[in-house]
Design goal:
- By secondary structure, the chain is mainly α.
- The protein has one domain.
- The chain contains two helices and no strands.
- Helix 1 crosses helix 2.
- It is elongated.
Amino acid sequence: MNSSLEAKAASFTAAVSSFVVLNWGSRDQEMEIRKRLGLAIPSSSSSKTS
């Protein structure tokens, strides 16, 4: 049971890290990630809106 909990924690951490990088990473990182994800979202409509 511990190992499955750890697996969930690990994937949660990975998801949170990528979310944080997407939302609060540097502009260069953000644009690079958006390119890799194939998103055509302009940087102006990014992050800190919430």
